[in-house]
Amino acid sequence: MLWCFRKRQPHSTWNELAFLFWTVTAAVTTTATQAVLGINGDHDDTTGEWLNSIHRNRHEQTTRHSGPLLRSGYNEKNLEPSHFTSTNTKQQGPPSWEELDRRVVPSWYDEAKFGIFLHWGVFSVPALCSEWFGTYWRNHWGPCAAQIASIMNGTERPKFAYQEFASRFQAELYNATEWSRVFARSGAQYVVLTSKHHEGYCMWDSTDIATTWQWNVMDVGPRRDLLGELAQAVKKETSPHTGRFIKFGVYHSLYEWFNPLYRQDQSNNFTTNHFVTLKTMAELRQLVERYHPELIWSDGEWEAHSDYWQAREFLHWYSTQVTTGVWNDRWGTDTLCHHGDFVTCTDRYNPGHLVNKKWENALTIDKSSWGWNRLSNYDDYLTTKELINSLIETVAFNGNFLLNVGPSADGTLNPIFMDRLVGMGEWLAVNGAAIYNTRPWDQCQIEPPPSLPMKKTPFGKSPEGDMPSSPVVYYTRTSDLLFVHLTEWPPGNQILLSCPQPSEDTIITLLGLSDTTTDPLNEARLKSPTPSAALTWSVRQGGRGDPGGGGLLVTLPPLTPDIIPCQHAWVLQLTNVANLNDGHDNQATTIT
Questions:
Q1: By three-state DSSP, how is residue 136 classified?
Q2: Half-sphere exposure of 278 (CA within 13 A, CB side)
Q3: Model confidence over 111-135: pLDDT tens digits?
Q4: CA-CA distance, 508 to 537, in Å (whole number)?
Q5: What is the pTM of this model?
Q6: Which residues pair with 252 in a beta bridge?
Q7: Would you say 303 and 333 are in contact if contact means Cβ atoms under 8 Å apart?
Q8: Comparing C-alpha atoms, which of 211, 307, 326 is closest to residue 259?
Q9: Is 118 in a helix, a strand, or coil?
């Protein structure tokens, strides 16, 4: 029937395509729909009524709209439900994953290093436990199930449905321009917003897509294009740290918890793809054509193969529409940690060693939740120092750092998030040269703290006893400079480095420290200050296995709080390092 309908109407109107969708939806049995929505409690009966109301009002609603179902270039062939393994012998198929992986990844992503992730949506209204609240509450599971049930039973009426939270999602204090300024101040070079999470609510004006009817920001909730406003504001913002325009990207969940079309495909063992053709691809294409995101952060891939999701077809098309666009690895059960411009592998991914393929550490400021969580207390948030140390480690091992913030339903950023972002920006204002546009040092990425006995040094006699352990250090580099990241200030103002081999011309400086800082009373230096103050260093004989240790001993100046260049971590810059370009000791590993 669907095929005949499509053939009779080669130029389907919005109403006809809406009819097509609801014909498919009607094929889903009431039993299946109830199973999808988890109708097994008082509040779930209302959920069933909510879905039924959509069916009852579909005809009335469609008569009030005009224009095409999709402005995203989706033609009738794209809309035809089909078996995901079917092929068209008349046309060349999509490129393989290996072919997609061989494309040259736009350089901006690797150079950026630091971005902001935003999890915001209807789940921000209850703000209980995490952005997975909808399924935790509906299906009575998860880490906060008992607490959620207690709160909901005490605050909401019987038969209250999750969908009713959408009308309370008003974003009345949301100011996209202010957000973008905060993100620029943090030092972030790209911003990624949830366009749709697993509950299916669309954060942009998706009213042209019939399958998002009454479940998007224009039909219910703020009645504003929240994503569109942020995309416009972010793209206008210039980073004070790099002088470059900030990039905008979108997060998009492929699957949805409660969508009957998806559950029907799932019950068919994904041999049908009604959900993909009628909803997922329509959304992704509209997001690309309307907002031109330069990063697509896909999620919700773990139940079906990438062929079901039509991932390769879409990404090939996307690469032709946004030539500077990049994407992650979450496009099907066969892609995670293997295919994509960068890999994420797991949430909060940190391999702890150098990885050849570009990867990303998506990390939450709230230790347990991506969305705003009213149950969190002060100790549940990572400190600025912890975040900076994680940024340093991530970049040293060839990763990007995507720091997540959970805005409130009213559109505000909680002060604790603001504090962390401002702290990141202040540190990067001093040390950004060691982060942006750098790459890992093949020779050495991390140096464990050596334990060395105190003894007479070229700089005088040290106190008796054992020398305290030096801090863990990380390395990054550019074409001609080596950066040494100190995660703690070294005891006795001395640090012994085993990896770098200095030359006679090596100069070592502390980023952010000038000659006038080290000797503020020297009038000659005040009149003609040099760009930075060279530190004293010497070479200690001995190998890494020797009791006394060997390496490059650097003495840092004693700094008082009023002249120390930054807090949390400090960076040494080394020039003319003899072994900077030696690649024989490459410690890189591949993903397994």
A1: helix
A2: 28
A3: 999 999 999 999 999 999 999 999 9
A4: 8
A5: 0.81
A6: 196, 298
A7: yes
A8: 211
A9: strand
